[in-house]
From TrEMBL, chain A:
Keyword Membrane: yes
Transmembrane region(s): 24-48, 77-101, 107-128, 149-171, 206-226, 238-258, 290-316, 328-351
Membrane found in the keyword field: yes
Source organism: Methylobacterium pseudosasicola
Name of the protein in question: Uncharacterized membrane protein YjgN, DUF898 family
Keyword tags: Membrane, Transmembrane, Transmembrane helix
Superkingdom per UniProt: Bacteria
Automatic annotation (TrEMBL), chain B:
UniProt-listed InterPro entries: DUF7092 (IPR055518), Mito/Outer_Membr_Metalloprot (IPR051156), Peptidase_M48 (IPR001915)
UniProt keyword annotation of Protease present: yes
Zinc recorded as keyword: yes
Source species: Methylobacterium pseudosasicola
Cofactor note: Binds 1 zinc ion per subunit.
Key words, A-Z: Hydrolase, Metal-binding, Metalloprotease, Protease, Zinc
Cofactor(s) required for function per UniProt: Zn(2+)
Protein's recorded name: Peptidase family M48
Entry similarity comment: Belongs to the peptidase M48 family.
One Gene Ontology biological process: proteolysis involved in protein catabolic process
Signal peptide: none
Highest classification ranks of the organism: Bacteria, Pseudomonadati, Pseudomonadota, Alphaproteobacteria, Hyphomicrobiales
Length: 406, 362
């Protein structure tokens, strides 16, 4: 048995571990059921699926030995979604009417639409977080979030303008500012969280990525110019495309490195009264789930290819033993079965390997500095908040079922 | 029955302070005892929260008090003892309800997309102001030109004059903004855009073997103009895509599902619109004294069905069905008394065929 999952009643004054279930028993069942029922109900079951996933992830996360609890309900999310449709419908109608009325200046229509959807999306993300916080309990203490979704949306928009104006250099400062707003409006019972996240702390890691991106753009420009001159030659046809791919590869590969540094800095900057969080996250902790997911997907692909090859060989060997139409029917059934197997397996892999892996990476590299001081946290009388934000986030396709971290 | 004992932690639900306690399960009751603490809970009242076995977090349903312990024997005994241990927590039982209701809702939304939206589009299309339609048409024409690779507009003066005569003859009763243009293309087709704009791709003129064949197609497009089909189709497909997009949500491949669904749902209506435009063509050709069945000859020649593709996905009806319907309508139409002559005289038809020839080369 994993020692971190046992109750440490005998040594309560030690620093508290945050642990995540190692076996993930039962998760695949939730995913398969959720995926198939979502298909069968043309997507409406997704709200209950998301709820089941969250219940699983929350309850398998042990903070100082006690599991977190998610008390949200699929009905809440569904109602929030319905309300969001009604709220969004006139906005969407207005935006499309605008683009019809101004066909000659599409930039204005697109620009306005983009700004409106961005603000709505940020608003939805913030309010969705409020819903999740107010449905999260630990040792019977409810989390909560105040602050204004509108202020958050404006703050995010303003910071994005700064980021664009500085060619991306301000990105870590934006992340820190938004993190501070979120954390400082997060409550555990009656205790307010405090964040001392600073953009400067992660600026060096960001500069590394930034330099690579700028270098890539410069390199691609040079390659493109070379390509114009070398058209038709071996250099232009073979070498330059390969170089282009090689030059572009490091950009996405470096982002987890930055996210790991940021997670470590921002989580360690969180205070709750006397309690501090300490994150030991290394870049490798985030790369591992991605690599594991990649490997598992490759294995699945190979497995399915081999299965398909075996089927083809059997069909060819069996020859004219069965009628043509029967063989066609059997072949169609097998193709559908293989495709269904592939779909279901890849969804299971995505949740079990990637999502759970990232979740575990954050949970298990984080500790609570002083568990004894946690005893000062007292339940609040605050109620639960509405699910409009979650519904809107779903309708706008922003945010995920499982947002990692606080 | 012997008593089961174990160690655990007690939480009062108002603070996060853990209190080490000893647990004792006997005669259907769970006893919790620790420093200054003594609870005696009835097993029937106990509820367990989600946790990974063997960890169990359990307490009475009506208080926030809980004990946590990791003891397989004790957990198994509680599972056996308390019938309502997991009641009210899980979404069991609700799954079937949700599935059935949401399937019903999905069917209702699909029904709305399939039957409600087209009715709405029919009702809304005439309400769109001409100026707006005109603007949309201009923007769409730009877009189409871009998609076709910005083909040159063909307007050799003699050809244009012949085309204008055909348009005047066939387009009686159409809105005054009617605008027919010819674009150089290797595709034989004609399109109608919102705002009474018709684009003829030049290969259609090249492939037509008589002026009546070409005039039949032109009259068919005028049928779309008269019915404001492009505006209707625009409203309809955006409405359907909007509804299906909400319905499908964030599932893998949802964009494909929406696109397929939109095509399938729109196709039925556009097939109907095509038949109506064919009927309009026959009527207009008959009125102008042309050969209304020439359209069927042209269709049979250049748009022969290439196979049994998915009939319900086709935006146009099968050509053989269309051609047969056109011939039947043409046969039923009143025939001109003094015998039939081509709708354009030979020199005009030659000029129209040369509408794409650059003026400089002649």
């Amino acid at each position: 048995m994993d020692v971190r999952n046992t109750v440490s009643a005998e040594r309560p004054e030690r620093g508290g571990e945050i642990a995540f279930d190692q076996s993930l028993a039962g998760l695949a069942g939730i995913v398969v059921k959720g995926f198939l029922l979502s298909l069968a109900t043309s997507g409406i079951y997704r709200f209950w699926y998301a709820t089941n996933l969250r219940r699983f992830f929350w309850s398998r996360t042990l903070v100082d030995g006690s599991p977190a609890a998610y008390t949200g309900r699929g009905e809440d999310l569904f109602v929030g979604f319905l309300v969001a449709i009604v709220v969004l419908a006139p906005i969407f109608a207005g935006l499309s009417a605008l683009s019809l009325l101004l066909p000659d200046s599409p930039v204005i229509a697109y620009g306005l639409g983009f700004v409106a959807l961005f603000l709505l999306g940020q608003f939805a993300l913030y309010r969705g977080r409020r819903y999740r916080a107010s449905r999260t309990l630990w040792r019977g203490i409810r989390l909560g979030q105040d602050g204004s979704g509108l202020v958050y949306a404006v703050l995010a928009a303003g910071w994005w303008i700064v980021v664009l104006a500085t060619f991306g250099l301000a990105f870590p400062f934006m992340r820190a500012a938004l993190e501070r707003y979120r954390i400082r409006h997060t409550l555990v019972g009656t205790s307010r969280m405090e964040s001392r996240a600073r953009g400067l702390a992660v600026l060096p890691s960001w500069l590394l990525i930034w330099a690579v991106v700028v270098g890539t753009v410069v390199a691609l420009t040079i390659l493109a110019m070379l390509g114009i001159h070398a058209r038709g030659s071996r250099l232009g046809e073979v070498v330059l495309p390969i170089l282009t791919i090689l030059v572009t590869l490091p950009v996405p590969a470096l982002y987890p490195f930055y996210r790991a540094r940021e997670t470590r800095a921002f989580l360690s900057a969180i205070r709750l009264g006397e309690v501090r969080l300490v994150s030991q996250m290394k870049a490798w902790d985030l790369y591992r789930p991605y690599l594991a997911y990649l490997v598992q997907c490759l294995k699945l692909g190979i497995l399915i290819t081999v299965a398909a090859a075996i089927v083809v060989v059997i069909m060819m060997v069996s020859g004219d033993a069965v009628a043509h139409s029967v063989r066609f029917a059997i072949g169609a059934v097998i193709v559908v079965a293989l495709y269904a197997w592939y779909l279901v397996s890849s969804v299971v892999l995505y949740v079990r390997v990637l999502k759970a892996g990232l979740w575990r990476a954050v949970a298990e590299t984080t500790r609570i500095s002083d568990v004894a001081a946690l005893a000062a946290i007292v339940a609040s009388a605050g109620g639960m908040s509405s699910s409009l934000g979650e519904g809107m986030a779903d309708a706008l396709d922003v945010g995920g079922v499982l947002d990692i971290g606080f | 029955m012997t008593a089961l004992t174990g160690a655990g932690r007690y939480f009062d639900g108002r603070t996060t302070r853990p209190v080490p306690v000893s647990l004792r399960l006997e005669a259907g009751r769970l006893e919790v005892s620790g420093p200054d603490l003594r609870r005696d809970w009835n097993g029937l009242d106990l509820r367990a929260e989600d946790a990974r076995p063997p960890l169990m977090r359990v307490g009475p349903a009506d208080t926030p008090e809980r004990v946590e312990f990791s003891d397989e024997a004790l957990a198994a005994a509680l599972e056996a003892l308390c019938p309502d241990l997991h009641a009210g927590a899980a979404t069991e039982g609700i799954t079937l309800k949700v599935t059935l209701w949401s399937m019903a809702a999905g069917i209702a939304l699909l029904g709305l997309a399939a039957f409600g939206v087209p009715v709405l589009a029919d009702a809304l299309a005439p309400l769109v102001p001409v100026a707006v339609e005109e603007r949309i048409g201009a923007a769409t024409e730009k877009q189409i030109g871009y998609l076709l690779g910005n083909p040159a507009a063909c307007s050799a003066p003699e050809g244009q004059a012949a085309l204008d005569r055909l348009v005047t003859e066939l387009g009686a009763g159409l809105p005054p903004g009617l605008h027919v243009s010819v674009r150089r293309s290797t595709t034989a087709n004609a399109l109608t855009l919102p705002g009474a704009r018709v684009i003829v791709l030049s290969d259609l003129i090249a492939q037509a073997q008589s002026p009546d064949e070409f005039a039949g197609v032109l009259a068919h497009e005028f049928g779309h103009v008269a019915a404001r089909d492009p505006t209707r189709a625009l409203i309809r497909s955006s409405g359907i895509a909007y509804l299906l997009g909400y319905l499908v949500g964030d599932l893998a491949g949802s964009a494909v599902i929406v696109a397929l669904g939109e095509t399938a749902l729109s196709a039925g209506y556009s097939r109907e619109a095509e038949r109506a435009a064919d009927a309009y063509s026959v009527a207009a050709m008959t009125r102008a004294g042309g050969d209304a069945s020439a359209l069927a000859i042209l269709l049979d020649r250049i748009a022969a069905d290439t196979g049994e593709d998915l009939a319900f996905m086709r935006s146009h009806p099968f050509t053989r069905d269309r051609a047969a319907a056109i011939r039947a309508l043409a046969a039923a139409a009143p025939q001109p008394l003094e015998g039939r002559r081509p709708i354009l005289d030979a020199p005009s038809w030659e000029a129209l065929k040369a509408i794409c020839a650059a003026p400089a080369s002649r």
